[in-house]
Amino acid sequence: MTSRLVAGLLAVASAAGIVVGTWLAGGMPSASALLPYILVSLMLPGVGWLLAYRRPEVRYGWVLLAAGLSLGVGMLGTGLTASGAPAGLLDYVKSVALALFYGLTWIYVPLLFPDGRLPSRRWRAVPWIAGIAIAAHGIGTAKAGLDPYDSTAQVDLVAALVGGAGQFVTWIIAGIVFWGLVLRWRRSERPERAQYACMVAGVAATVAGGVLTVLFIFGLGTPLLTGVAGLALVGSLPAAIGVAIVRHRLLDIRFGIRGSRLHLVFDVRPTVGEVLSDLGTALEDTPEPVEQLGRLAAAVRAGLELRWAAVTLADGTRVVSGRAEGPAALTMPVRGGLGHIECGPRDAGPLTGQDRRLLEALAVPAGLAIQSAGLVTRLVNAQEAERRRIERNIHDGVQQQLVALIAGIELARATGAGADMLAHLREQARQTLADLRELAAGIHPSSLSQGGLVEAVEERCSRLPVRTTVTSAPALRSRRFTDEIEGAMYFTVSEAVANALKHAEAAAIEVRLSQADGRLTAAVADDGKGFDASLTRRRGLATLSDRLDALGGGLSVGSEPGKGTRVNAWVPVDE
Amino acid sequence: MSEPIRTVVADDHYLVREGTRRLLEMSGEVEVVGTVGNADELLDAVRRLGPDVVITDIRMPGGEWRPGFEGIDAAHRIRSAHPGVGVVVLSQFADALFAFELFKHGTEGYAYLLKDRVGDLDELLGAIGAVASGGSVIDPKVVEGLLARRDVRGQREELTGRERDVLREMAHGRSNAAIARALHLSISSVEKNVNAIFTKLGLENSGDVHRRVAAVLAYLGPDPS
């Protein structure tokens, strides 16, 4: 807001300087004749204000505002001098301001077009040299006492030489900058090309105006030509920038008519920062992974004003915002190679380099969102699979046993069973209970909730048919962690141990639990036959790896055929 | 006493299979001519042994069958290849979804019972008898579940408690006389209740006991459109 206020104040100050200065210089009676000149001059602060107001983070608007202010101060100074104000300091202010105005419009405005940045690092000396030349021009001219309206005045030769040299260098640099601009125009792609073309025409008109003005100073011009030259000098650049804005969406600002009332509004596309911060909020509010991808696609679509945008994952999942029709106009791989973002055609006009930069910026959070979406999906799937497994176990195990028990009891009732049969039924009921207990332990062992990680791991390993040792620091035994951490670590050990028994045919298993440097680590090593880690994917451990990932930890499996297997799991914990 | 009904029992759980066999044989009304552990063996046993009725578990893992629907799919195969064989499907699921899956090609000769009915010999024998003669039975608990579902959907029919009892008995495929016996009512009172139910559900009354289950099911069906 503050920057917008400053932009407004600068623009108003410039306008005031221009209006009052021109008035004073021209004298009251000729005010109406000067009106076109005033209006044309006002374009510069106007355009500068528009850019600085809508895109305060882009330097270009401020450069234009500075030029406008120089013009305003210069005109005011000229006006005050013409209406008889004493020379001296005023001369300096006026002269420097006008030199600054010419320097800015001839060098900085074309050089920094379109976004206020140098075209390349090669140009980095130019602003400094130009700055010195402008200062020399302004101060030298003022000190020399040169007055284009009074050629008989006393002239300080040294100062005049300095001023002339400054002006000369300014012209040279302006020529070089103009040449650079022409080159950029020739090399630019379609949408930018039109913007550069405007600018080239604007600078050319300005130069023509400048040449005509110089001719006038040497007494070679008609009043009409001089007027046109003056208008070209102050008006062509802002006019060119204005056209670039209105017709060619310079800096993504454009005009339109909104609503039924015909008032002109200008609209601006969100900046990269705005899109990113909106997206961040949207993603935070969206717990569903697929929905997150939808938000992402929607953000790209809105940010770039596309007919459609799609996010496609490496696994083929595709979420589209809008109606995907026709080929993508632009495709951007998402950071990390997890997928890519596709852009449909723009509502109006082609995609620009600016759009590509926005998309590049979006590809970063997109990668993160996709990554976390993948993790969440895998965790949810694993959870579902685990639930189904438990349901199947209950259905095929305990539930069936109870059905058998009911059938047995019914048989006993109908036949008048003896003691043997009742004892048999009791045994069946006990077995059912034992199985139920085993099942419950598989879901969440009571030793884990009651006794903690070490206790539960020891309990799990004490029932194994091979020699198993569990080592842990005594301090760890009494340590309790969150349910998530204890669960993830316990089931990782449990799975690793089960793998060692099932697949590795291990004769001895060693489990180590330790805590150091903010990490809780579980290592399970066996002396089994091992496997080629590059060829084998272990599903159970992959699920647990995701679980550990979600806790900020990790899992590594090291194995070689014939050399046993070593599983290392860790999670960050508070000391 | 008439000839015992010849049955084959299929269940992947040994204890359930044997418990059911012994229970049925003890009744004297049913002869178990074979017991099998999966759907493939069941089809084979039906071909070889030519039973009157098959009693099968709904879920028997193994083979090239739809997982979880082995019993139902086998039932359909049996009924289409051997229309004279009745099928009683025993299920752990009170969810009507599975019952409708069983009855999707018609109700005749099919019974859908919850597995705990093995603790109620009369119920089980009733269902076996019904499907043996081409009738159909649906577990009253499933019907109750369907009625409750309609209540939840705001389609409450305002059946009286007595009418709900009668509806439950109708689901067993029972005749009015059998319902009267079971509920200790006069036959005329049962008839009155049956008429009231059919009127409230907007169904055409049918004297044919076999069709009644189908009518009730069709009405309570999964797709009320």
From TrEMBL, chain A:
Domain Histidine kinase/HSP90-like ATPase: residue ranges: 484-575
Catalytic reaction equation(s): ATP + protein L-histidine = ADP + protein N-phospho-L-histidine
Keywords tagged on the record: ATP-binding, Kinase, Membrane, Nucleotide-binding, Phosphoprotein, Transferase, Transmembrane, Transmembrane helix, Two-component regulatory system
PANTHER family, alphabetized: NITRATE/NITRITE SENSOR PROTEIN NARX-RELATED (PTHR24421), NITRATE_NITRITE SENSOR PROTEIN NARQ (PTHR24421:SF10)
Record-annotated membrane-spanning stretches: 31-53, 60-80, 92-113, 125-146, 158-182, 194-218, 224-246
Pfam family of the protein (one): HATPase_c
Full protein name: histidine kinase
SMART domains the UniProt entry points to: HATPase_c
GO MF annotation list: ATP binding; phosphorelay sensor kinase activity; protein dimerization activity
Enzyme class (EC, first level): transferase
Keyword ATP-binding: yes
Enzyme Commission designation: 2.7.13.3
Species in which this protein is naturally found: Nonomuraea deserti
Highest rank taxon of the organism: Bacteria
SUPFAM superfamilies: ATPase domain of HSP90 chaperone/DNA topoisomerase II/histidine kinase (SSF55874)
GO cellular component: membrane
Automatic annotation (TrEMBL), chain B:
InterPro entries documented for this protein: CheY-like_superfamily, NreC/VraR/RcsB-like_REC, Sig_transdc_resp-reg_C-effctor, Sig_transdc_resp-reg_receiver, Tscrpt_reg_LuxR_C, WalR-like
Keyword line: DNA-binding, Phosphoprotein, Transcription, Transcription regulation
GO MF annotation terms: DNA binding
Gene3D superfamilies: 3.40.50.2300
Residue ranges of domain Response regulatory in the record: 6-130
Residue ranges annotated for the HTH luxR-type domain, each copy included: 152-217
Residues modified to 4-aspartylphosphate: 57
Biological process, per Gene Ontology: phosphorelay signal transduction system; regulation of DNA-templated transcription
PANTHER family cross-referenced by the UniProt entry: TRANSCRIPTIONAL REGULATORY PROTEIN NARL-RELATED, TWO-COMPONENT RESPONSE REGULATOR
Protein name: Response regulator transcription factor
Organism placement in taxonomy: Bacteria, Bacillati, Actinomycetota, Actinomycetes, Streptosporangiales
